[in-house]
Description:
Number of helices: 14
Strand order of the largest sheet: 2-1-3-11
CATH superfamily of the largest domain: DNA primase, PRIM domain
CATH topology of the largest domain: DNA primase, PRIM domain
CATH class of the largest domain: Alpha Beta
Radius of gyration: 26 Å
Number of domains: 3
CATH architecture of the largest domain: Alpha-Beta Complex
Distance between the termini: 9 Å
Strand content: 15-25%
Order of helices and strands: HEEHEEHEEHEEHHHHHEEHHHEEHEEHE
Number of strands: 15
Largest sheet: 4 strands, antiparallel
Amino acid sequence: MDSESRIKELFREYYRSLRYEIPDLLGSREIGFIPFSGTMIRHRSLRGRDELGKFLVDVVPRHMYYSLAYYDKPTKRSMQEKGWKGAELIFDLDADHLAGASGMSYEQILGEVKRHTLRLIFTFLIGMLGINEESIKLYFSGGRGYHVHVQDEGIYPLDSNSRREISNLVRGEGVSLSAMLTVHDTYRRDPSGWFSIIDDEVVKVFDEVARGSPDSNSILKLLLKKNDQVAKYVSSLDKMVRLEGNTVRKADAFSLPGVRKYAAMGKQDLEISEDIARTAIDRVKCEIDEPVTTDVHRLIRFPGSLHGKTGLAVTRIALTDLEAFNPLDSAIPEIFIGKQDMIRINRPMNITMKGETFSLAGEVEVPRYVALFAAASRAGEFI
């Protein structure tokens, strides 16, 4: 049996043992899959647990998908004929959109994508948009990232443009201090959303400067670009400005939270604040696959299915468990644990799975889940 056939048989073994998570209204979803030989096949439908189980064991897809949309007739080939009824809101967070991902190890990629996912859920979906935690479903994708599903009656009817606005919010697209100041009331006392994040950072920096903290000079050197301007600028912050009828020192005024202080800033102060804002935006924004979020007909990986390039399972995660979640432990199917296989490594491979680090080269016997990961990812092959 060649290596590809061996992978397929292991997938079949897994699907025979799988306790399926059935997406709601499965019969209204379009099903798509990529077989072990061939290209994407879609416009299929499965009506329940028994039909799904038989399909997975008989067909053994290398990659298995279902639509985020609900349809009257999911098997029709044209979107017009399908009869679109609404769609979940989906976020796909993956290494493809991370700066510097090409220089990271697989484990480093997983860690960085997780940080973006945490911000997406808690800063944006729950924090800014007020989405109920019960409406959010989170999955490890089986590959290099996470899928976040929002299931809510208010979400389902949203068109692509509305979803793009949400995507832009999450990605920090078009966000800047100057843009925020054009839409916020100068006397508003409680900024929210992106403006709150930006303002908190501005306040933090000017508070450091006002207190003369050890870090303040270093901060200003980065912001002013020229070291010889730091002393001059610090001196300028001792000048007095009018703020809501009171005369206060600039450094103290700029350390106050809220939008009022920006009216008292000069050109240089605002330029520095804008630079501070850009740093805050870059730190907080989330890198997502925008076309996935905006496409109301998108297919997404099926819960519990195996990823054809890793042999890891698409795994449901409780939101409170995300921070501690380790895919290279918890997304390994139980059926592959406790068994060994021989593989031939085609390119050197280093991976830590189930708490054990493997540095692989040549022909070696390893746990089945390591062998499957190597073979599925094309780093090796079964022998």
